[in-house]
Amino acid sequence: MEQTNNLGHGFDVSAIRKAAANLDDGAVTEGYQADREAVIAMLNDALATELLCVMRYKRHYYTVSGPGTGQIKAEFLEHAQQEQEHADRIAERIVQLNGSPDFNPATFAARSHAEYDASENAQDMVRADLIAERVAIESYRQMIVAIGDKDPTTRNMLVEIMAVEEEHADDMRDLMA
User: Fold this and answer.
1) 111: which residues sit within 8 A by CB, 6+ positions away?
2) d(CA 167, CA 170)
3) Please, where are the H alpha helices in the chain?
4) Half-sphere exposure of 71 toward its Cβ, with a 13 Å CA cutoff?
5) pTM score, two decimals?
6) How far apart are CA 175 and CA 108, in angstroms?
7) How far apart are the first and last CA of the chain?
8) Residue 1 and residue 149: Cα distance in Å, rounded?
9) Burial environment of residue 35 by CB neighbours within 10 A (0 to 12, 13 to 18, 19 or more)
10) Which of 12, 44, 60, 121 could be stapled to 76 by a disulfide with Cβ–Cβ 3.0 to 4.6 Å?
11) Is 165 assigned to a binding site?
12) Residue 68 scores a pLDDT above 60
């Protein structure tokens, strides 16, 4: 019989108490509703995307030159740091879900949603980064929809990351000549 708490909210106390079992599962309780392996695979693709974006922004930061590129250079560095923060958050979440973050550089390009860029001039770099940000936004939007309400922690993280990617896209659009 389902037990209720003293407030009468209809909590399934027996299910809540089952959370004390299977301690090796860490944060993943029996109530976790998403397909954990699918979420981990999705997050590993997002991890590859973020890491590739770090490399692209870093390359742009170090190679952009010319008059009037100081602001662009600063944006590239800031975005590289924020993309690294995203990668770190995603890797931490994969571990929380009892998965293994895939940092294999040999498979980054195949798993990444965005592409690497070797542009030589500032405007081509900005354009490539705007395209990559738009790709990331759509990728995160689709991941958020796929997860739905089945994994609120992952969903909230993806929503927060997507908001930063939207800011990046606005920044790149504003830098277009």
Assistant:
1) 44, 45, 48, 49, 102
2) 5
3) 13-18, 36-63, 70-96, 108-111, 122-147, 152-175
4) 8
5) 0.87
6) 28
7) 67
8) 26
9) middle
10) 60
11) yes
12) yes
User: What Cα–Cα distance (Å) separates residue 82 from each residue in 51, 58, 124, 167?
Assistant: 11, 11, 21, 11
37 is in an annotated binding site: no
Question: Would you list the domain boundaries of the chain?
Answer: 1-31, 33-175
Domain 33-175 class?
mainly alpha
**Structure-token match 């993943």, residue found:** 28
Q: How far apart are CA 113 and CA 132, in angstroms?
A: 8
pLDDT of residue 1: 45
Question: Residue 109 is encoded by which pair of tokens?
Answer: 């390009």
Task: Return d(Cα 117, Cα 70) in angstroms, integer.
Answer: 20
Which tens digit of pLDDT belongs to each residue from 106-151? 998 899 999 889 999 999 999 999 999 999 999 999 999 999 999 9
Cα separation, 19 vs 28, whole angstroms: 9
